Amino acid sequence: MAKKTYKIAVIPGDGTGPEVVAEGLKVLQAVAEKFGFSLDTAEYDFGGDRYLRTGEVLPANAADEMKKFDAIFLGAIGHPDVKPGILEKGILLKLRFDLDQYINLRPVRLYPGVETPLKDKGPNEIDYVVVRENTGGLYTGIGGFTMKGTEHEVAVQSMVYNRHQVERCLRYAFEYTRKFGKKARGKGDKNTLALVGKTNVLTFVYDLWERAFHEIGASDYPDIARDYYHVDATCMWMVKNPEWFDVLVTGNMFGDIITDLGAITQGGMGIAAGGNINPEGVSMFEPIGGSAPKYTGKNIINPLASICCGAMMLEHLGEVDAANAIEEAVMDVTGTKLKSLSAGKMGYSTQEVGDLVAERV
Length: 361
Ligand code: IPM
Ligand code: MN
Known about the structure:
Blueprint (H helix, E strand, L loop, with lengths): L3 E10 L3 H19 L1 E7 L4 H7 L7 H5 L4 E6 L9 H13 L4 E7 L17 E7 L9 E4 L7 E4 L5 H18 L11 E6 L7 H16 L4 E6 H10 L6 E4 L1 H14 L7 E5 L5 E5 L16 H14 L2 H17 L13 H11 L1
């Protein structure tokens, strides 16, 4: 029987992106070998260096080109010589929007042996997932200036959502909770989806979210428990009682903010992985941490976030056993090998960490 082959677009990007992507791919190739599928990769040089060389942020046909693939594996975007915003908006957000990757999936999971800044919390307590809406809200860029540069200058940026956007995000979150909630994973007696909002102040946008949440939940997902938290309170509970959470769903801006908080509680940027998901299209997997220019080329950056992105990508492609094998190998490495997750303090080089995981899958 012919082996199943997945076509993967690889965007190593800037800074330490290429170094971590190389280790992510090393582990993916190892696991593919073991589980009997193959990965056909094609590399794209999108990023700061290409922009500085050519003056073009992203080729006009980039999104169409990406649609030829089963998934995109991305390193990091961000260059010290390029003004902040140009590459983020021109590459990262542009791909998310053009490919309609309307979900940003961010697991917050503390692995064994990993240090968390949260006192008295361990892997049992820090184990939840944030489903962030990824193409709407404040990120749509609706707004503008008037009287710019004067003392009466006005700047407006609107939080915009339509029912369709909210509904598709909520449905994804309910489906995800049914499949991967705490009960589904054997870690609790129910699967719970919590909406994170601000219904006490954002009385239009989060009113829409809240109504849709309960309507859809009551009619189509009665088996899933529903909770609601204000976003500010969520930040407190993420620190004080993270064990309360199972799956959280929220809008784009709140999701951006709380997932950085979540990332630091799971050990930081060395480990935090995310997926930009279009359930009906092409999804893109990227570590939450940036391009870390000061560590570039030193073989000291932690590649585990990229390796975990590989696991997320395989899970998304339906290779669940292979994805679990990577996650277990990562847990073994954090639990028995690494001294720290920080660049330069792991006790191993970037490439050695890749080898340690690859050996174990
Ligand atoms: C993230 C990042 C991006 C975002 C930036 C780089 C545009 O912070 O993926 O969380 O705000 O979504
Ligand atoms: Mn962010």
